Amino acid sequence: MSIIKQAQIAKEASLKLAVLPTKSKDKALAAIANALKNSASAILEANKKDVEMAKKSGLNEVLIKRLVIDRQKIREMVDEVKNVARLEDSVGKVLSQVELDNGLMLYQLTCPIGVIGAIFESRPDAVTQISALCLKSGNAVILKGGSEAKNSNKALVSIISKASESNGIPKGALQLIETREQVSQMLKLDDCISLIIPRGSSKFVKYVQEHTKIPVLGHSEGICHVYVDKDADIKKALDICFDAKCQYPAVCNAMETMLVHKGIAKKFLPLMIKKFRQAKVEMRGDENTRKIVRNIDKAAEKDWKTEYNDLVLSIKVVGDLNDAIEHINKYGSKHTDSIVTENKNNADTFMNLVDSASVMWNASTRFADGFRYGKGAEVGISTAKVHARGPVGLEGLVIYKYKLVGKGHIVKDYIGKNAKKFKHKVIKKLF
Amino acid sequence: MSIIKQAQIAKEASLKLAVLPTKSKDKALAAIANALKNSASAILEANKKDVEMAKKSGLNEVLIKRLVIDRQKIREMVDEVKNVARLEDSVGKVLSQVELDNGLMLYQLTCPIGVIGAIFESRPDAVTQISALCLKSGNAVILKGGSEAKNSNKALVSIISKASESNGIPKGALQLIETREQVSQMLKLDDCISLIIPRGSSKFVKYVQEHTKIPVLGHSEGICHVYVDKDADIKKALDICFDAKCQYPAVCNAMETMLVHKGIAKKFLPLMIKKFRQAKVEMRGDENTRKIVRNIDKAAEKDWKTEYNDLVLSIKVVGDLNDAIEHINKYGSKHTDSIVTENKNNADTFMNLVDSASVMWNASTRFADGFRYGKGAEVGISTAKVHARGPVGLEGLVIYKYKLVGKGHIVKDYIGKNAKKFKHKVIKKLF
Predict the structure, then answer these.
(1) B152 and B25, same structural domain?
(2) Which domain holds residue A257?
(3) pTM, entire model
(4) Mutate to test the interface with B, among A216, A360, A389, A431 (most CBs of B within 10 A)
(5) Phi, psi of B316 (to 5 degrees)
(6) What's the pLDDT tens digit per position in B92-146?
(7) ipTM, two decimals
């Protein structure tokens, strides 16, 4: 089938899916969870092909690890789908309500966006997560996974589609595309697709933004900072910086640059760097860092802009809080940044002025995640500044529509000399 | 000054403007209102130049009318700015609050978007409205108005900038650009500008979307429908359709196509068409309409897709409610559509299934407007399906950031065998 035809079918399905009651969607999600459980061997078999192919083609270890599905992974997928079923429906919520005049009532209600194009990297479990979140939020979705996971994705989509369609979900609400060429074609279908969610490198997200008129919710890189303030508690600073860098360095919410106030650097840096050396963290420091601790490589300008995704860290000693904020707003990726301090004023200034999706005080950047934020699941972490920002769960997959209910009201009555006045009585406020 | 430099200055200003307290912003708005009042003669003089030039170049009557500023218009501008000062601040509102664990609190707070690029048509009063709304919502803005209003815009921006900057608004928070070339350059500055709001034709909005990576909030055309159901009250239907078409035909929320259920067409159409003929509405009907009323031109396929913005109307007799919904979702512009009926089920079905920003029941499409919806003012009416939809006021000019406040919390404690459990106690829900 052509991608144009696929998108048209998805569009038609989305209009029906948008008005399905919560119960029907949850029933379908339960059926999907069941089907995944019962189709374990088919999934494992398909995945085996992908892994063999990947090994042959010399894909690196880390990527192969992300590609592999085992029985434990399937159990996790099943649980994730069940979790999404348990989440509160984000569709049909009244955001605001205003009585414009007697008998003329305005409702602002959440509704699905329509058709979402989701493009993601090699992890095949993204298929189940994104499908479940889109279904629950009433959106049709066109998925494009990594080509290394081709067989796994195909098997998963087939199982999910079958289970959902035989449980009342409109046919074609979930579609899979497989080639890059199909992605370029999809980016042109602004008539049918209302939002593109690309997950991947900053370069990839920029490519997508350059090649489409469709709104893009960028889930891009994370150049996250921890700033250790002059008034920091040293123990907290050591723990938070270590956690932010070492607990799981391959992810977007790990720390890439540590900023340290000059007034605490001599006390803090030797202790911190010792800890990092024990954990085999490769460090690159600015001049002042290298004056305090020997044998640290020199950080180049490009280090401040690099997402290492690895046990590598750049370190800079800053003159004061404002220098730290300026550095973050200049080099960061507006993802997640944390201050360690016992000074409430400094914490407030930092959290207000740092222009990032998540700003933190005395907590590890690693907390920035849909599950930890209490969303149950996430489609990703948005570094965009419109629609949805930071970890995006079900509430980021809806928009709203206005419903105005009258009794034959016309505008002419509210215009001119004897114009009726609006009441504008607020019954529920947006915020 | 180069547009790149302008955008950088706007970006720097936006970071400071974002944290200004409501009082300071309102004080500046009051000063702007005052300055506009006191500079009436300078504004009128600049506008006179534009109008003379426009007449010389043969600009059409309607556009010249929109271009003209008189003392009454200045009073209206002053009032609008004062109104915006009175509106509740949309910045710093707590959207949600979750206690993730003891001592670890997550806040989701509204904040400004950053720098907004606003491109609009010839009406110079858009300058005051957009500037006031951006200032109040803490956003810097780069304005590009119609070239016909060049002198008027320049005068207004100079007055507004001076008044606001001498009242604590960061220098450069309001910028004007004047040429199309500067617009194309602006569209490339995704490092500094976070949102583009283009107002104008569908073609223009598409042009903008095609030439930028920056998110675009499309304020595009309105192909609005009124559907007269089989169960309509004829009197209400006559009033609503007449109001929707004739009260102010040049605007985007006027009706362009009237759909009539076949079961009521014979009774309703002759009465309605008589009224429209008296008001000199030019009508184009489908075959069934033309069978019921003589001397109606034949509607072509392209009529269903046309925003006339004039006393022209296309009319179609439909088989049932579903046909009406299908027609609207196929040909409409997702702006505003209304059903006239006494049947609640039909109204609900219509309002749920029509995929438009505003759906109405027994009310004129002309109500779809920021002021009438109780927003005080609007930057425009969005036909986009992400971020902000329908009439967009202050609340559409903000996004949110997450603030996480801990006491040294690290993620490692929540991972593995003896992992602590999250509490996820919801203190305030998003919706």
Answers:
(1) yes
(2) 224-367
(3) 0.95
(4) A431
(5) -140, 135
(6) 999 999 999 999 999 999 999 999 999 998 788 899 999 999 999 999 999 999 9
(7) 0.96
